Amino acid sequence: MSDLPRHTVARTARLASLPIGIAGRTALGLGKRLGGKPAEVVLSEAQRRTADQLFKVLGELKGGAMKFGQALSIFEAALPEHLAGPYRATLTKLQDSAPPMSADRVHKVLDRELGPHWRRRLRNFDDEPAASASIGQVHRAQWPGGREVAVKIQYPGAAEALRSDLNQIALLSRLFTTWMPGLEVKPLVAELKARIGEELDYSLEAEAQERFATAYDGDADFAIPHVRLHTQHVLVTDWLDGTPLSQVIAHGTQEERDRAGLLFVRFLFSGPARAGLLHADPHPGNYRITPDGRLGVLDFGLVARLPGGFPPQIGRLLRIGLNGDAENILEGLRAEGFVKPHIDLDADELYSYLQPFTEPARHETFQFSREWMRSQFQRITDVRSTSAKTAFKLNLPPSYALIHRVWSGGIGVLAQLGTEAPFRAEFERWLPGFTDEPVIGASDGQASPAPTP
């Protein structure tokens, strides 16, 4: 039976407290301005206090609040440094932790899902969770034969909590735009709500994870745990040791961050060709650097199914963009549905808007940075700029929604890492249409040797 009724009031009250708090800060800010304090100082202080309350509330909740916080944390690199600095640790915490479920309730879930004798298969089960996140938590155990396994257990009432939290967050969109002007909250929440069913069914996740694990089995660069057992609400996989990518972001050397970022891009770009799937949840909590230096990947609850690899139109349009053919870019985007037929758009303005996004493919090597990402975010969210007006006229076709999420989220992670790497070579290898050469493995979804850095 769901535990939601006992906690719904408290959860909703915490989220509902956010706009009340911002109203108080607005009144306080008005008083300070009347008292002679500069407007920009008052705004900065209000933003800082808003962020403090925002992350405190999100960090205390699971469900949709936690899921939203994880999605938001990817774009930490776009924040002005005076806001990002003090809250970077809190944003990172949102990527891979949440308040745990009690041992008694964990045992009840396992009894229901696996039967009363589940300890015969999950030996030395550790009641203390090794990790907890938005809709479930992970425990360590041993599979028969001694293999270490991760037991992922979904919280009872997760579906109701997700929907309740996301509905509430959608109503609070004004709060987030006050904290970070230009942030589009409603489309992000709408996408999370649309994917609830996929992420809640661990059977779908098991199928996707095993396809990845098989395609990358024995790979020199990547480690993906195999699936041992699953139900709709419990998933047992091989255990994966490693250093979380968030720690590489915070403490890694430049060489470590360069290699991690390159492998991160290589995995995302190679997935459709090698496994017929795109890992579509690219926040740092889903990645580890294993003791032998490989990139370990976790959490396959959200994937895009691309059995033929990436759509070749992406590579072709990127190549046309590099060649500077503005008219053909406009026509290509119209054909794919990014520009609706009735929208009047200047080709040269569109080309100018898109140029920074092609930079990583324009050079043999490219370095992402927080400064670069902040400049791009400001460029497309300043309502007075031509770029913002151009962005407003563009449309995102549903078939590209998850690809767009991976592309934009991946850039956020690379900016946090500050990675410098030969990204153009990865485009050439894995993006159909970028060159005339066929992408290895795209036609049959079979594994192909990945180049080493």
From TrEMBL:
<keyword id="KW-0067">ATP-binding</keyword>
<keyword id="KW-0830">Ubiquinone</keyword>
<dbReference type="InterPro" id="IPR051409">
    <property type="entry name" value="Atypical_kinase_ADCK"/>
</dbReference>
<feature type="domain" description="Protein kinase">
    <location>
        <begin position="124"/>
        <end position="453"/>
    </location>
</feature>
<dbReference type="InterPro" id="IPR034646">
    <property type="entry name" value="ADCK3_dom"/>
</dbReference>
<dbReference type="InterPro" id="IPR004147">
    <property type="entry name" value="ABC1_dom"/>
</dbReference>
<keyword id="KW-0808">Transferase</keyword>
<dbReference type="Pfam" id="PF03109">
    <property type="entry name" value="ABC1"/>
</dbReference>
<dbReference type="InterPro" id="IPR000719">
    <property type="entry name" value="Prot_kinase_dom"/>
</dbReference>
<dbReference type="InterPro" id="IPR011009">
    <property type="entry name" value="Kinase-like_dom_sf"/>
</dbReference>
<keyword id="KW-0418">Kinase</keyword>
<dbReference type="GO" id="GO:0005524">
    <property type="term" value="F:ATP binding"/>
</dbReference>
<keyword id="KW-0547">Nucleotide-binding</keyword>
<protein>
    <submittedName>
        <fullName>Predicted unusual protein kinase regulating ubiquinone biosynthesis, AarF/ABC1/UbiB family</fullName>
    </submittedName>
</protein>
<comment type="similarity">
    <text>Belongs to the protein kinase superfamily. ADCK protein kinase family.</text>
</comment>
<dbReference type="GO" id="GO:0004672">
    <property type="term" value="F:protein kinase activity"/>
</dbReference>
